Every structure is written in C-alpha cells, then in structure tokens.
Amino acid sequence: MSVSRPRAARIAALALAAALTVTACSSDDADTAPPPTEQTTQDDATDGDGAADDTAAESDDGAEDSTDEPDDAATAETDDPGEAESAAEAGVDPVELGDPVATFEVGADDIADPDAAMVAEIYPLQREGDVVTLVMRWTLRAEPTERGVFRGLLGEASGLGAVTLVDPVNLRQHSVVEAGGSRLMSGSLTSYQGGQSRYWSAVFAAPPEDVTAMTLLFPVLPAIPDVPIR
Residue 10: which domain range? Predict the structure, then answer.
C-alpha cells in the first residue's frame, strides 16, 4: 500500500516529536538522580576521617598514659649520698667489689625495735705489696623512720680500731696499721637511717704469700674464719 506525501510528512513529524520527548525525559532524570559514585566516595571520606579521629584520640590517650606513668627505675633509686661518700673514703668501687664472702648481723642497741639489726657484709681481703685491705659494708636493717649512731647501734662492738686479722698458718695476729699516730682506716661510720648502708675499710700488714685466707676477729663478736685474700 502506498502512502501519500502529506501523510508521510505528518507521520515523520510525529515520530520526531516523540523522539524529542523521550530525550528530554531522559535528560531530566539524569539531572535529578543523585550520582551514586560521588555519594559513595563522600561516605568513604567521612568514614576515613572518623577512623583518623579515633586513631588520633587513641594516640593522645596513650601519650597521656605514658606521661602519667612513673619511672620505675627512678623510683627504685634511693637518695643516700652518704653511701657513695663512705665508699670514696674507704677507697673502694662498689661495682668492682663483687659479692661478700661472709655476712653477720648484730642487734641495733640504739633502736627500740627488737627486730632492728646492723648487718655486716665482709669482702675478700685485697693484697697490695706488704699490706692487705679489709672492706666491710654495714647496713641498718630497720624502718626508714628509724635513726641511730654507729657507735650506739653496735655498742661495745663499735671499736673497729680493735679489729684484727689472724694468720692461721703462722699463728700471728695483725692489727690495723698505724702511720703518723693514726690508724689507717676509714671513719665515715656515723649516723644511719633505716635501710642505709656505709662502707668501711682498714689496712693490715700482709701475711706471707703462701697464706691465702685469714680469720677476722672483732672485740666482742664471733670470729669470721677463711676470709680469702685476693
């Protein structure tokens, strides 16, 4: 069947108008619909900022915690310059002394607490030429609030100038060496506070080279045998 020209032109015009209407609707829909990709990206960015804020808050909290925590090493240290001073006067380096070879304790007469005591640590005798040096460390075992004076703490045992060393091989007793009218021993054993320590040293004539240990005698205390000579 043939179509006349006027009718064909009318049909073409209607088709063109329909096409334009569809295109316009599509354009309007595209303009009004939110871009899903951009929305997702914005949400992700918001989540990322929140996570960053949380991380920063946790970091700040951690920094505050670490600042508030005390330094255990600093806390453990005691402020007692008297111990270092006594070591210097005794001529010893506490680090090089090593471990004591004998320990004993004496009741602290100057303190009311019956459990308080003066604890003595004895270190090896140090041979140097014709002399040997005895080193001891005295510690007041008592509450930090307790105080006492060395002579009062040890009573009759405080006469350290009367301490002697005995050569068990040749059965000779060695006293503290005197020079210029003074005994060669340190004298920093004065006042104590509970928990504090003081070093003390004294010089004696050395026994023969074949003697490798001596016995330590105090005026009123039991003998301490086999103190080695180094």
Answer: 5-68
d(CA 111, CA 121): 20
Burial of 68 (0-12, 13-18, 19+ CB in 10 A): exposed
Residue 73 lies in a domain: no
Same domain, 95 and 60: no
Q: Is residue 201 part of a domain?
A: yes
Name the helix (H) or strand (E) containing 6. Answer: helix 5-32
Do residue 95 and residue 17 come from a single domain?
A: no
CATH code of 160's domain: 2.60.40
Beta bridge partners of 205: 131
Number of domain units in the chain: 2
Statement to judge: residues 113 and 216 lie in one domain: yes
- Measured CA distances, 220 to 80, 112, 159, 174 (Å): 30, 21, 9, 17
The per-residue pLDDT string of the chain (230 residues; one tens digit each, 9 = 90 and over) reads 444 444 444 444 444 444 444 444 444 444 444 444 444 444 444 444 444 455 444 444 544 444 444 343 333 344 678 888 889 988 999 888 889 999 988 888 778 888 888 899 999 999 999 999 999 999 999 998 888 877 655 655 556 778 899 999 999 999 999 988 888 988 767 778 899 999 999 999 999 999 999 999 987 778 999 999 99
- Entry pTM: 0.62
Q: Are residues 15 and 118 in the same domain?
A: no
Q: How many of the other CB atoms lie within 10 Å of CB of 90?
A: 24
3-class DSSP state for residue 213? strand
For the chain, the maximum distance between any two Cα atoms, rounded to a whole number of angstroms, is 153
